[in-house]
Design a protein that fits this description.
The complex is a heterodimer. By secondary structure, chain A is mostly helical. Helices cover 67% and strands 3% of the residues of chain A. Chain A is built from 15 helices and three strands. Chain A has helices at residues 3-7, 16-20, 23-43, 52-71, 74-98, 118-136, 149-163, 168-185, 189-208, 219-229, 238-252, 263-266, 278-310, 315-339, 357-375, and strands at 100-102, 105-111, 114-116. In chain A, strands 1-2-3 form a three-stranded antiparallel β-sheet, with helices on one face. In chain A, 47% of the residues are buried. The chains are: A mainly alpha, B alpha+beta. At the A-B interface, helix 8, helix 11, helix 12, helix 13 and helix 14 of A face helix 1, helix 2, helix 3 and strand 1 of B.
Chain lengths: 379, 663
């Protein structure tokens, strides 16, 4: 064995891949799901049905998906990136034409027993596509305007379809994730600054024009924005839930009221207690300690993923890992901010905890991609 | 723009390239920045959690524990509905119910056992109750028994110590004091269903109150947004037991608006009673302003059953009844108008100049078009008749001929001028359009050209023509007034009077109208009139009318040969529909009426007497006395009035009560 051979670093192969999986991250994910399972059990008033058990089954499927994806070479995912983006776009079109209407919006696609929400999938495939794009593009071209066209189209096409559903919240998330990947790829910060200033200018124009002769929106549209920003203006609608939610947080205190003891939640003061507002249940029943623990576990997953990404030398896995990490972060941060009255109410679930299959499977798939990037890192 | 960031970016990209080679990762620096931002957001979330759960915990815990803040919607009282004379026909009555909070009851079964001794609770209700408690949670008050009377409430209150968690509550329940009389106009309310919520865009939070009721049928449904009112709310503090400690804020809702109908309850009640036992509809319209004075459809049903929740068996019985009590035949039933359509054909032919007052047409009893033979109802034929005589005797051949001369397009245009073929804008459920056929319609519908035979058939109101009773009554009102009256059902809403719509003249020559009216007068009062038996002997009430008998089936050649054309020989559902339209008094018309008796047989026998009685009731203002009728019929009339008497309302007393209430 020569000294040259000795210095070459290669990705692990065969059964060694299993050792290379980031097991602490897997453990953290399982722990987060465990908390979610207990909460679903609790909101059903101590019963495995209708939520906890189906959720557990889906999680097991999700784990299997995650391991399968993790052991597949990352190179394969790079080659599939644009195909999957195109496939998602196609699904979004199909949903627009023939999707199920749920909660007043057209978002779902029924394929056999699977109920798929393509807008969830779009976030992951967009990150894949952008990561593949910037891995291919020579770094010196990244900030040239003509090379911005493709990534912007890749973001805006699915976003436009999602806005149509209508699901403004998810569309905004998609745009944020896409822009984050562009930022990571090294697109000049001047573009972002210009964009932010332009957006701020537009918002300012909309508000400053209010009540003047050149008012940009109709009066009722302004009223909707008011309620969106300050739910207290609509005490019987949005404001009601936020008020009740805040009381639930306070009522939890340091150590919580114990499982199945949350009066606010068990009294049905809150809608969507098993989906978007489940963090409220947790906060009331497990208290500050429980909330902090969940937040800590989430941040642990973020840290594990980001830390691994720092040691990735190739652009595709690094961009993919960072992008998917940010996607995950936006999920829980926005959901938590929403139920605590820090952000407007948009329909974003709490990842791995809220009841719902489609979002969880997509999430586990994205963890699989992160693991694949980690596993196939030369060492 | 292309060079705006490009040059510098390229320079930076070069340095980053160096940096990348150095650190081995091209995205690390920006990723670290983003990670720091994420950490910042997480810190913000922690700070907020700390604020809500540690700093302000005491305050909120108190709110949640001892005194929970709760927003209660205050359901507004539903608007009342009055008849033209101010008699309340839909109101709200207090409804007592017992509710239970399972958690406070501790031993639910024992409490329910004890409660069952005071008010009846069936085993099935009990099972349903437990399901509801499981679903809603032990803290939520659940209704145990509804529609209790005051004695029940007293008994429950008296035994309160033995019934922990049980309390009596009072709410408002819709009540229809006249039961089935007005059900097809007023309709009924019922609990809000998921279907209702889906149907309504942006539903009022009010609709989500358990046990809130929404209009399901008739006026209650069509005018629901007006009658419902707006919810108020009160922000209250409740203690752990659910007792209200104090009210923090209260905003009263807006009660629903009251609605006054143009319907005359007395006349409506009389019409319903007169048609009892038949599957029939009657509409009375004021010929001076288009007000609908009565809109009856029999059989009817008791709307109060639906308010309190109808049993499945009873509902199925209503649904499967061949007389279709759930349908408002006055607006939803579309029938071939039969001979009542002849006035339209006559006016169209007169306007087209295809006939005049003098021309006589010979009726041999049949009419031939190509190889098709159309029969007159009188097998031997009428001989030679002019227009007035043809209306009087309802000669079919005469109208076959003038319809053929006039053509369907001109007949259809005249029919539309009289209100056929389009639904009126009335606040009622399932208003049918009826049908005025023309060439374009048939080609679009059947992809076959219009035939002369179709025109001939339409000439006697058969074939494709369909009309609803309200359209027929309106036709009679327009014939009587010569003006394009629009039907009006709402006299006032929320105290604001709804003015009748403008009624411009029909733009028909006076002599044409006079000719048709004369024919109609002779139908009832002429020597050979088809409805001569239905005339009145009181000169002031003399009226004009027209019979109609519309075939439900085709009489086959064999049947005609065998002679089975008598309705009495046929099963009910294959008999002809009987129709009659009328207006009166002859000298100065005030009311028009249309009656359709489904499968009643001939118009002169089944529909005309009913229409006569209803019209006389409208003209007389009270139950018509027997001396309005020809002497030979008075005995029969007396018997019928006696039989109807138990169903008739004591109107003077009701009016007195209404006046007292409004004063």
């Amino acid at each position: 064995m020569s000294h040259i051979d000795y210095a070459v670093r290669t990705p692990p192969t065969g059964w060694r891949k299993i050792l290379a999986i980031h097991w602490p991250m897997v453990l953290a994910i399982v722990a987060i799901f465990g908390i979610g399972f207990v909460m679903l059990y609790s909101v059903a008033d101590g019963a495995l049905t209708p939520w906890a058990l189906p959720q557990a089954r889906r999680f097991l499927v999700g784990l299997a998906v995650m391991f399968a994806v993790a052991l597949t070479p990352i190179e394969l995912w790079r080659r599939l990136a644009w195909w999957s983006w195109g496939g998602t776009l196609l699904l979004l079109v199909v949903v627009a034409v023939a999707g199920d209407v749920g909660m007043g919006a057209q978002r779902w696609l029924q394929i056999g027993p699977l109920r798929l929400q393509p807008s969830e999938l779009a976030k992951v495939t967009l990150v894949m596509a952008l990561a593949a794009y910037y891995a291919w593009l020579p770094p010196e071209k990244v900030s040239q305007p003509r090379w911005l066209v493709i990534p912007l189209l890749a973001i805006l096409l699915p976003a436009a379809l999602i806005v149509q559903q209508p699901d403004l919240g998810t569309a905004l998330l998609l745009v944020m994730v896409g822009l984050a990947v562009m930022w990571l790829a090294g697109v000049h910060w001047g573009y972002f600054l210009t964009g932010i200033l332009a957006a701020a200018g537009a918002v300012a124009a909309v508000f400053l024009s209010r009540g003047t002769s050149w008012q940009l929106l109709k009066n009722y549209q302004y009223r909707r924005i008011d309620v969106f920003l300050d739910p207290d203006l609509d005490p019987l609608g949005a404001g009601y839930h936020i008020t009740q939610s805040k009381i639930a947080f306070g009522s939890g205190g340091l150590s919580g009221r114990g499982l199945m003891q949350g009066t606010q939640v068990q009294l049905n003061f809150l809608p969507e207690k098993h989906t978007d507002f489940i963090f409220t249940t947790l906060a009331e029943e497990l208290g500050f300690i429980g909330s902090i623990s969940l937040l800590g576990l989430y941040m642990l997953v973020i840290a594990f993923a980001a830390w691994s990404a720092f040691s990735m030398r190739e652009r595709f896995p690094a961009l993919l890992t960072h992008g998917l990490t940010i996607n995950f972060f936006l999920y829980f941060a926005i959901n938590m901010a929403m139920v605590m009255g820090l952000a407007p109410v948009v329909g974003v679930p709490l990842p791995l905890v809220s009841y719902g299959g489609s979002a969880m499977l997509v999430l586990m798939f994205s963890f699989g991609l992160i693991q694949s990037a980690i596993v196939h890192r030369p060492r | 723009m292309a060079r705006l960031f490009g040059n510098r970016a390229r320079r930076r990209a070069k340095t980053r390239g160096k940096e990348a080679r150095k650190t081995g990762n091209p995205v690390s620096r920006r990723a670290a920045l983003l990670l720091a931002a994420q950490g910042g957001v997480a810190a913000l979330l922690v700070a907020r959690l700390h604020q809500l759960q540690i700093e302000e915990a005491d305050r909120y815990r108190l709110l949640a524990d001892e005194n929970r803040i709760n927003i209660r919607l205050l359901p507004p009282p539903r608007g009342l509905i009055f008849d033209a004379n101010g008699i309340e026909v839909a109101g709200n009555v207090p409804n007592y119910r017992a509710v239970i909070v399972a958690e406070e009851a501790r031993d639910l079964d024992a409490v329910l056992d004890r409660l069952a001794r005071l008010v009846p609770i069936s085993a099935r209700e009990r099972a349903g109750l437990k399901r509801e408690i499981r679903r809603s949670g032990a803290f939520v008050p659940i209704t145990v028994a509804e529609n209790l009377d005051w004695d029940d409430v007293a008994r429950i209150s008296l035994n309160a110590p033995a019934l922990p968690g049980v309390s009596a509550e009072v709410g408002l329940l819709r009540h229809y004091p006249f039961g089935s009389d007005l059900v097809h106009v007023v309709g009924y309310v019922g609990p809000v269903s998921d279907y209702d919520l889906k149907r309504i865009e942006d539903p009022d939070p009010l609709l989500r109150i358990p046990r809130f009721q929404i209009g399901k049928y008739g006026l209650e449904r069509e005018m629901d947004p007006v009658l419902r009112g707006k919810a108020g709310f009160s922000r209250i503090e409740v203690n752990a037991a659910g007792r209200i400690m104090r009210e923090l804020e209260r905003k009263e809702g807006e009660p629903g608006k009251d609605v006054q109908l143009t319907i005359d309850l007395g006349l409506q009640n009389f019409a319903e009673a007169r048609m009892a036992g038949e599957s029939a509809a009657a509409v009375v319209i004021d010929t001076r302003n288009g007000d609908i004075r009565a809109l009856a459809s029999t059989p009817a049903f008791d709307p109060n059953l639906f308010v309190r929740g109808i049993s499945a068996t009873r509902y199925r019985a209503l649904l499967e009844d061949p007389y279709r009590p759930l349908t408002n035949k006055a607006v939803s039933g579309a029938y071939p108008p039969g001979s009542t359509f002849k006035m339209i054909v006559a006016l169209a032919a007169l306007e087209a100049g295809e006939i005049d007052a003098a021309e006589r047409i010979f009726c041999p009893g049949f009419y031939e078009v190509g190889n098709q033979r159309f029969h007159c109802w009188k097998r031997g034929g009428h001989g030679r008749l002019d227009l007035v005589g043809a209306i009087e005797q309802s000669c079919d051949v005469f109208f076959y001929e003038i319809a053929r001369r006039t053509g369907i397009e001109r007949i259809a245009a005249m029919a539309r001028r009289f209100g056929f073929g389009a639904a009126f804008d009335l606040p009622l459920s399932a208003i049918a359009d009826g049908l005025v056929p023309d060439k374009g319609w048939k080609e679009a519908r059947y992809d076959r050209p219009w035939q002369v035979g179709d025109t001939v058939n339409a000439g006697i109101g058969q074939g494709y023509v369909l009309a609803t009773p309200v359209q027929l009554a309106l036709m009679a009102a327009r014939l009587a007034s010569g003006r394009a009256l629009a039907p009006r059902l709402l006299m006032s809403v929320g105290g604001e009077v709804r003015q009748p719509a403008d009624a411009p003249p029909l733009d028909l020559p006076a002599d044409h109208l006079a000719l048709v009216r004369k024919g109609m007068f002779r139908v009832v009062n002429g020597r050979r009139g088809t409805a001569r038996r239905a005339r009145t002997v009181r000169e002031a009430y003399a009226f004009a009318g027209k019979t109609g008998t519309s075939q439900v089936r085709i009489i086959t050649r064999e049947e005609r040969a065998r002679g089975i054309t008598h309705n009495d020989d046929l099963p009910w559902e294959r008999r002809d529909h009987a129709l009659f339209v009328a207006f009166g008094p002859w000298r100065n018309p005030t009311h028009a009426v249309a009656v359709v008796v489904e499968h009643g047989g001939s118009g002169s026998k089944a529909a005309a007497p009913i229409a006569r009685d209803i019209l006389l009731r409208a003209l007389h203002g009270d139950t018509p006395p027997p001396d309005l009728y020809p002497a030979a019929m008075r005995e029969e009339i007396r018997d019928r009035l006696e039989a109807m008497a138990p169903h008739l309302l004591d109107l003077p007393a009701l009016r007195r009560a209404a006046r007292k209430k409004s004063a």
